[in-house]
Amino acid sequence: MPSDFFTNAAVLRRAATTMLLLVVMALSCFFLYRAAESVGFRVSYYKYSPIVTHVMPLFEDASHSSDSEEYSLERVLKEASMEDKSVILTTLNDAWAAPNSVIDLFLESFRIGQRTRHLLNHLVIITLDQKAFSRCLVVHSHCFGLITEGVDFSHEAYFMKPNYVKMMWRRIDFLRSVLEMGYNFAFTDADIMWFRDPFPHFQPDVDFQIACDHFSGNSDDLENKPNGGFKFVRSNNRSIEFYKFWYSSREKYPRLHDQDVLNRIKYDTSMLEIGFKIKFLDTAYFGGFCEPSRDLNRVCTMHANCCFGLDSKLHDLRILLEDWKHYLSLPPSLKQSMSTWRVPQNCSLNSLHLAEEPEDEGQILDR
Ligand SMILES: *[C@@H]1O[C@H](CO)[C@@H](O)[C@H](O)[C@H]1NC(C)=O
Ligand SMILES: *[C@@H]1O[C@H](CO)[C@@H](O)[C@H](O)[C@H]1NC(C)=O
């Protein structure tokens, strides 16, 4: 029957049209996705790609996959932020993430410090490899996976070896992006024990405040020996410019590491021109094994700097925590008289001299 024929033809035509529509839709989705992806990569000039920051199902939200990089960092920072948009940041790699290694001691110090426990809510652990990220998820609630293409930071980064230098620079570039998102940050190495809240010590009108290996006695003195392991930086145009300048200096001083470059550029007049204000933190409050905070009634943080070898570092950090617990257990009258630490022991300046010609591949030097 012709009518049947026509009906069938109409059905077929409709089916074909539907098919075509589906194909077109699928294709445009595909191209849209690709376009979004490439825009995402162009817009984000940071050279890292994030891995999941929370356990996120695959394809959860494909439209966000293109900008998930900034999206997820933004989200982690927001969740950890204090009211004034300040966060505490540390970086972590495989070597320091193992159980009973540096990260556990670091987190313990916040728990046993005076009024430092709540600061854990504001701490973001930036992990540099997959193992560190997995461990972070177990021990902490704010983790962000930072991946640098083509570089594996999962092993101990030996001081001044190429990967160590790359990691340092990567960190500077990353911290600049945090400033650009409007967050002030206290950056702390994980081998710094937090015994008291440092925030009351940060001055409001200063852009950049940094701890020292050696403190000259004057917080404005550019001759101080800063240590990049601990600093508080306010987010503003001056600090963003400074971080850009610092990062760009790696081309001028290709063989120096970030801290040595900082020691040169701190004298640069262009920093004065933009009105960048820097202060050095007193080792009486922000000490380390190079120059300990001798008075336990005043100490905020202690850094396992001037230390060669991860085993030595862990050895002395454990004694440091024991000393602190002992101090806390003392009655107030005795607290005044207990004034110093039993460390450094295995971390010593003598061991630093060995570091100039490292023989043992298993050794790590951190200043
Ligand atoms: C930087 O400067 C611009 C214009 O001078 C201003 O609009 C902006 O708010 C400043 N940003 C910060 C973070 O201070
Ligand atoms: C610390 O030093 C002591 C004495 O030199 C040594 O016996 C011990 O093995 C060292 N411990 C570590 C973990 O390096």
From TrEMBL:
Database matches in InterPro entries: At1g28695/At4g15970-like, Nucl-diP-sugar_transferase
Residue span, Nucleotide-diphospho-sugar transferase domain: 118-317
Record protein name field: Nucleotide-diphospho-sugar transferase domain-containing protein
